[in-house]
Amino acid sequence: MAEREDGVVNARDRDVEGRARSARPRDGLGRPLTYGVAGVERQPEGAVRSAGETVREAQRLLDAGMPFHAHEVFEDAWKSGPAAAAPLWRGLAQLAVGLTHAARGNAVGGARLLRRGAVGIEGLDGGPYGVDVPGLVRWAGELAGRVEAGGPPVDPVREAPRLSRGGL
How would residue 103 be classed by pLDDT, with cut points 50, 70 and 90? Predict the structure, then answer.
């Protein structure tokens, strides 16, 4: 709960524009933590990055085991970039959220989002952005299959995909 300047306590946290926005800290997988606990710094919302910056920042976050935060980077690109690129960024955001859910132990949601993201990017040209679309489609299908089969817990660092063929 957040207290306004006039001392009234709001039932929901709000951002500076008055929109509901949880101020609770988050862990590396985006799960809310108790107020007052140190969490992982959130990505700035609405950041406008070049395509290359988007891929580099998302890869850095994936490599650090923070796919939830990588999804936020892709979401910014999807919302602020050219409409023609939106399907690619949206699909990549779904892949990152799928990895997030799988790492949280949500096998059904994780597999579903991994498959949805793979279908969303399949056949798209990721070349202008350095994205290895065929490799990501394969990765997502393999991980979704292992998650659905009840494989071992998903380690988001070990399972982090490579967004581009040649690295970054």
Answer: very high
Other residues' Cβ atoms within 10 Å of the Cβ of residue 44? 9
At 137-157, the pLDDT tens digits run 999 999 999 999 998 889 999
Pairing mode, if any, of strands 9-10 and 2-3?
Answer: antiparallel
Q: Which of 134, 131, 56, 58 is nearest to 97 (CA)?
A: 58
C-beta of residue 133 within 8 angstroms of C-beta of residue 107: no
**Mean pLDDT over the full length of the chain:** 86
Q: Which two tokens stand for residue 166?
A: 């040649």
Measured distance CA(130)–CA(86) in Å, rounded: 15
Measured between alpha carbons, how far is 155 from 64 in angstroms, rounded to an integer? 11
Q: Which of 53, 43, 45, 30 is nearest to 79 (CA)?
A: 45
Judged by phi (left if over 0) then psi (alpha if -120 to 50, else beta), residue 150 lies in left
Tokens representing 163? 């967004």
How many CB atoms sit inside 10 A of residue 26's CB? 18
The span from the CA of 142 to the CA of 150, in Å, is 13
For residue 100, which of 134, 135, 138, 62 has the smallest C-alpha distance?
A: 62
